[in-house]
Amino acid sequence: MSVDPITCHILDTTLGKPASGVIVQLFHISNDPSLSEDIQSYANDGGNKHFATAKTDNDGRIKQWIIDPNGDFQNLGINKSTNNVNQSWQILKPGIYKAKFLTGKYFLSLAQTQQQTSTGSGGRTFFPFVEISFIIDNPPDNHYHIPLLLSNYSYTTYRGS
Known about the structure:
Blueprint: E1 6-12, E2 17-18, E3 23-30, H1 39-43, E4 52-55, E5 61-62, E6 66-67, E7 78-80, E8 87-89, E9 95-101, H2 103-112, E10 130-136, E11 144-150, E12 155-157
EC number: 3.5.2.17
Enzyme class: hydrolase
Function: Catalyzes the hydrolysis of 5-hydroxyisourate (HIU) to 2-oxo-4-hydroxy-4-carboxy-5-ureidoimidazoline (OHCU).
């Protein structure tokens, strides 16, 4: 299986295990990675809807994204296949991007499956979602990895490899 140019990995630090089943959305905020635009344009996501969605696997990883089939994202390096349905993402374009992790749904689902009894959180979390904005430089590296260490009341991230 090929890997898309942006990947994620989530570890649930309350359980000491990968966080599986977390929905993550990708947004493209700006084509300009230099931060020269008005900062307000970044605050409102550039008016964009997410262009890709995925769910973490049993190892807490996202290696491939489901690209919105209704969008034309060639400006992001995403090309439609010959059948005009599937899209492949092989080239990463510079700009500002954001990953939005739907963490509230994850903690609720843990509580419903009784996996979180040892933490005593009952599905509560202080962060219903975690948004991580990041810059893809010009020229971009071949791959960007976004790790997220997650608990009900804190999170940490860094530039992964």
